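Recall that a protein's primary structure is simply its ordered list of amino acids. Everything else, from secondary elements to tertiary packing, is in principle encoded there. The following example makes that idea concrete.
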Amino acid sequence: MAPTRQLKSQKSIQGAVLLLIVSVLVLGSAALFLGTQNLNRADLNRRDTVTRDLQKAKQSLIAFATNYADDHIDGGAGYGHFPCPDTDNDGIPDFPACPFLEAGRLVTHWTTSAGKAQELYPYAQESSRQFWYVTSPEFSTHSTSIVNPDTIAELTVDGIGDVVAVIVDPGPPLSGQTRPSDDVEDYLEGDNADGDENFVTSVDGEFNDRLIFITREEVMPLVEIRVLYYVLHQLEAIFADRGYLPYASLLGDIDDADSVLACVPQINSGFLPVDIDQALPGCDIGAATNFGAWVKSNRWHHHIYYHVDDNCDHEATCVPTSNTLEVTIDDELRERQSFMVAFFGEVIDALGQDRSNPVLPHLPQDYLDSPLSGDTSAGNEVRYEFFPIDAVNNDRALSCQLTGAPCS
């Protein structure tokens, strides 16, 4: 009986050892799995944080561009300009990087023309977490290029063109990258580090850049509205100072600068006049209430239609009685308006618009999309109508009755 008991004991021991080995393997696998899950969770949390920060940085840059003229009203650049990159890691824009295609870190702050410090976006300051950034040279604050709806951006991302700015999270350092450094190759990889206008979201080999970008299509509609409100309030200030509004300039070929700058007496509708400090009746408003120099230098007036009511021009009382201006914006009828300004979009071929006719002045229908543009068939009223943006409507308009509440 003893050998049998011994054999059974050995089998029990072997079974216990096998069970222990299996348990160890199971526990080890579980620990490895849990460790992997924790690593994945940490990586996912970091990716989520980076995604949120990139989005915040993008929105901060768009806000910078749409408010730039407020902080730099005398700088000449105007709305729609983006800051230069920070190439020496001090947090502020470095102007030598503009207007060239030089990547740097995303700026954290800048100083306004009035000497006030402004913060762009407070993100992590560790060098491994700082975003890198480049802007299309045409849209930089120190570019001599004109920024208006006709300006085309130079950057591309994965072949997508007309990109105004790119923001990149460099990720942890890869092999061959030494940090901290001011060399872009120590942070970015592949096409993102070669100093040209093309950026990518992936390449063969080691690569951990994550980027977000801003297209012209995303930012320019916001800039256009911001410019339109600026013009609205400047006209309101002109009236408050002078007691009347200026006449318009002639609608005409924008390649002929002289024909689209000057205020013309007795012309109530046309392009926004930017040369209005003239010794002419209805145009002598004085430089103190003129438009900022950036309006003219960036040719925004080539894109703004202006109509002043007969009762508000040249030393008038601006109390609409007859020949009143009537404006409908998105189905809201606004009667007895003092003036109206509108951004007209690109030519819509389906409407037969022609802006190259050498005969001046052009017709309102060549610029505005509604067949009611400048309509006087109702009698005393001059009527305009603006619809929501769609395939055959790309105008945006604002109007104001100066005898009522402040323009808004």
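The longest strand covers residues 160-169. Residues 1-11, 16-37, 124-128 have pLDDT under 50 and may be disordered.
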